[in-house]
Each structure stands twice: as C-alpha cells, then as structure tokens.
Amino acid sequence: MHFFSADRTATGAAVRSIRPAPCSRSVVESLRAHAGTRVPFSVEFNPPRDAAGEARLWRAVRQFERMHPAFVSMTYGAGGSTKDRTARITRQLAQQTTLLPVAHLTAVGHGLAELRALVGSYADCGIRNILVLRGDPPGDPLGEWRKHPDGVTYAEELVRIVRDLGDFNVGVASFPEGHHRSPDLATDTAFLAAKLRAGADYSITQMFFDIEHYLRLRDRVAAHDPIEGAKPIIPELMPITSLRTVQRAVELSGRAVPAPVLDRLRKAAGDGPEENREAVRAAGIEIATEMAQRLIAEGAPCLHFITLNFAKATSEVLTNLGYEVTAAPLSA
Ligand SMILES: Cc1cc2nc3c(=O)[nH]c(=O)nc-3n(C[C@H](O)[C@H](O)[C@H](O)COP(=O)(O)OP(=O)(O)OC[C@H]3O[C@@H](n4cnc5c(N)ncnc54)[C@H](O)[C@@H]3O)c2cc1C
After folding, report:
1. How far apart, in whole angstroms, are the C-alpha atoms of residue 71 and residue 127?
2. What is the pLDDT of residues 42-56, one digit of tens each?
3. CA of 33 to the centre of ligand 1 (A)
4. pTM surpassing 0.90?
5. Number of structural domains, the chain?
6. pLDDT tens-digit profile of 270-313?
7. Residue 82's pLDDT is what?
8. Which of 154, 182, 196, 202 has most ligand 1 atoms within 8 Å of its beta carbon, as the pocket-test mutant?
9. In this structure, what CATH number is given to the domain that contains residue 7?
10. For residues 87 and 103, what is the distance between their CA atoms, to the nearest angstrom?
C-alpha cells in the first residue's frame, strides 16, 4: 500500500504525496553497498513485444539474479499494450524477484494525473527508484516533440513532480556527446545540472563507444556545478553481438558508432556473403570488456549494460573483468 498525505511542493502548491514502501533501497544506497569489493554493475531490460519475448526476458532476469547487479532498469515505451505490459513487468520485478528495479518514466503521451497514478502504482509495490525522462516522439525519435496538453515539456519538471510525490530516488539521462536537440555541449551540461539540482540523485548516460566522451561529460558537469557534479554519472555500455546490433546501437543512441570500432567489427565479419557471427560477437565482447576496464580505471561508479533481454553477452564481459558470475546455463 502507499499512503497519501497533504503536502507542499517547493512552490507551495498542495499535493498529495505518495510514500513508497520504506523497505526498498535507493540506487545510490545500493551502489554504496555493492562498491566494497568491485565496481558495481547494473542492467537494462526492454519491454517484450509478445509472450515469447516475455519468457526470454524472465530467463534473463533469473540468470541476472544470480549475478547480483546493484539494480536493474526497465525502459518505458509509450505505445498502448507495451505500456501496460511494461508497468506490469516492472511491478513483478519488485514483487517476484530479489532484484532492485528502477522504473523508467517518460512524459510522452501522459498528462500529470496519469503520471502521478503510474508513480503511485510503482510505490504500491515498493518501487522507490524512478529514472525520469522526457521520452521521444513515438515512432520517430528525431521527430517533432509535442507536449501532452496536461503534461510537461522537460524532464526537469517531471523530476520535481516525482520528488514532490514522496521519498523517491530519482535518476535522469545524461549525454556524453550532448543530446541531439541541444544547441551545444555547454547548454546541454547546464540542462543536466538543472535536472540534478531539481532533485535527481544520479544520471545514466546514453550508450557510447568512445570513453573520452564520458570523461569529458564528467569534467564538464563538475566544472559547471561542483555539487551536482559529485553525483554519480553511470556509463551505459552495450556489448555488440552482431552487425545487426550495431544498427540497433545507432537507433538507440542517435549517434554513429566510431570508425575504429566499426572497422574492428567489420574485419571480424569478414568478406564472405554471410557475416562471421562468432567472430563479430567475440570482437563485440572484447570491445565492451576493454571499455569496462578503462571505465573502472577511471573511477566509474557503476557499469550499466544494455542487455536486449539476454544475459550471456553481459555475463561474458563480467567474467573477462574477473567478476564471479553464475555457472548456470545462459541464454544468448
Ligand atoms: C539512460 C537512458 C534511458 C532512456 N530510457 C528511455 C525510455 O525508457 N523510454 C524512452 O522513451 N526514452 C528513453 N530514453 C531516451 C530519452 O527519453 C530521449 O533521449 C529524450 O529525447 C531526452 O530525454 P531527457 O529526459 O534527457 O529530456 P530533457 O532533459 O527534457 O531534454 C530534452 C531536450 O530539451 C532540452 N532541454 C532540457 N531542459 C531544457 C530547458 N529548461 N529549456 C530548453 N531546453 C531544454 C535538452 O537539451 C534536450 O535537447 C533514455 C535515454 C537514456 C540516456
């Protein structure tokens, strides 16, 4: 159950606050708890499209449970049935697993009442961690952004709303190469700092393949605002397992994969009519391992893996890093 009570926002307006179940740990607490022996890792799942996809997701969930990630996040799609399935599975992650779930929340297609109800439904099952995002226009991430008539325009506003609702631990998105709609990196940094100042506790980056972009982002935020710059910036990695997933990486990040990375993968693919999938996969795992090693050396607070709902590739990277992972059978 969550509890409503009369409360006041930073602007003095009365709101009904939602108290998440007190037992759930925050992401920041979990990072601290996991940091003793190794750099923590976390994983991202996506809403499955159908029953077969859901079965695959649950196999990955059970496999990751044995590897003890600091948290798992579930992305949010605004489309009709996917939306309902996402919310249901996110709640099940809290109720039926030992994992710490982070619910992605986007402003796309939602008025404030609906957003508050969704946050309330998460609080009801003990979910305290929310990754607050504006989201992209459905169907075309680069298309024109249209605010819902009763919604918000920027993630910063939604951060304030979620924080006003109760004791939520809030994460936001950060962009090592700048968000594609930001006019320049300085403005992009100022917007990220504003989201953190509004109450976000950490950020997770967009996926990248050049560590320098991550390091420069960290330096920019620290120089812009040393207090906000001290909050964790969690790098997102995607182990590439085929040339098809390169395309997926470009779609997800809106950024080209750097030429040296692409060259390594293409060389592994070979000149034949069919790509040498085994060699591409091995190269992809090697690239992700090298990136993770450098990020650990540079003091990253956590390694966040895009899994596409498979456990095997992430587990191979973790094994290469010397992490103890399960001996149970893994899916691709
Ligand atoms: C880790 C991660 C997870 C993600 N998960 C999802 C997901 O689950 N579902 C989904 O649909 N999308 C997801 N996305 C994609 C994300 O929703 C898009 O990248 C979106 O375009 C930007 O979201 P945001 O929260 O950064 O928006 P905002 O911070 O609101 O920024 C949006 C744009 O507005 C600009 N801006 C911000 N504040 C202001 C201001 N005050 N005045 C003027 N301009 C401003 C920014 O520079 C940016 O160009 C994710 C992205 C990341 C990095």
Report:
1. 12
2. 999 999 989 999 999
3. 29
4. yes
5. 1
6. 998 899 999 999 999 999 999 999 999 999 999 999 999 999 99
7. 74
8. 154
9. 3.20.20.220
10. 8
In a domain, 217, yes or no: yes
pLDDT at 1: 43
pLDDT-derived band of residue 199, with 50, 70 and 90 as boundaries? very high
Q: Residues 2, 75, 323, 213: what is their CA dihedral angle, to the nearest 10 degrees?
A: -120
Q: Is 192 in the pocket of ligand 1 (CB under 6 A)?
A: no
> Is residue 254 in some structural domain?
no
Note whether residue 269 is domain-resident.
no
The stretch 86-109 carries a mean pLDDT of 94
**pLDDT for res 83:** 78
Q: Alpha-carbon distance 141 to 136, whole Å?
A: 5
Which residue do the tokens 């226009």 mark?
Answer: 137
142 domain residue, yes or no? yes
Pocket-testing residue among 108, 191, 228, ligand 1, by greatest number of atoms within 8 A of Cβ: 191
Instruction: Report whether residue 158 contacts ligand 1, using a CB cutoff of 6 Å.
Output: no
Distance 179 CA to ligand 1 centre (A): 7
From the CA of 105, how far away is ligand 1's center (Å)? Answer: 11
Nearest to 71 by CA among 106, 44, 38: 44
Residue type at position 245: T
Q: Express each pLDDT in 221-274 by its tens digit.
A: 999 999 999 999 999 999 999 998 888 778 777 788 999 999 999 999 999 889
Q: Is the CB of 204 under 6 A from ligand 1?
A: yes
DSSP-assigned letters across all residues of 175-224: -TT--TTSSSHHHHHHHHHHHHHTT--EEEEPP-S-HHHHHHHHHHHHHH
181 Cα to the center of ligand 1, angstroms:
9
pLDDT in the model for residue 20: 60
- Per the structure, the complete domain to which residue 57 belongs is given by 3-240+301-310
Ligand 1 atom nearest residue 188's Cα = 47
